[in-house]
């Protein structure tokens, strides 16, 4: 599994979340299996999103699609996106 991690500042979390929930690029169609949204504890307008993919190619294609969004309508609700792709090496629940 591969995670495309995106972090950026938003102008207003509620407005950004509404845009995110609108799913303008179609996460499922891009191959996203699941996602997670986090905010920093000391800055609720700093967001980290993890998008999970089966392949690194799908994650890279998603970055290309999102850059178009960020340079257009997405730029109205967020700024300075940073991305990285992580390769899941180990995962387990500890009880």
Provide a descriptive summary of the structure in words.
- This protein is an alpha+beta fold and 95 residues long.
- It has one domain (2-87): Alpha-Beta Plaits, CATH 3.30.70.
- 25% of the residues lie in helices and 39% in strands.
- It is built from 2 helices and 4 strands.
- Strands 2-3-1-4 form a 4-stranded antiparallel beta sheet, with helices on one face.
- The chain starts with a strand and ends in an 8-residue tail after the last strand.
- The mean pLDDT is 94.
Brief rundown of the structure:
This protein is an alpha+beta fold.
List the SSEs and their pairings.
Elements: E1 2-10, H1 13-21, E2 34-40, E3 43-53, H2 56-70, E4 78-87
């Amino acid at each position: 599994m591969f995670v495309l991690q995106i972090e950026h500042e938003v102008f207003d979390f509620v407005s950004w979340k509404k845009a995110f929930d609108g799913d303008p690029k179609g996460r499922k169609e891009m191959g996203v299996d699941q996602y997670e949204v986090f905010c920093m504890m000391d800055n609720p307008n700093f967001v980290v999103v993890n998008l999970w993919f089966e392949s690194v190619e799908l994650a890279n294609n998603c970055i290309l699609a999102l850059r178009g969004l960020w340079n257009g309508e997405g730029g109205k609700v967020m700024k300075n996106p940073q991305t990285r792709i992580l390769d899941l090496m180990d995962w387990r629940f500890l009880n």
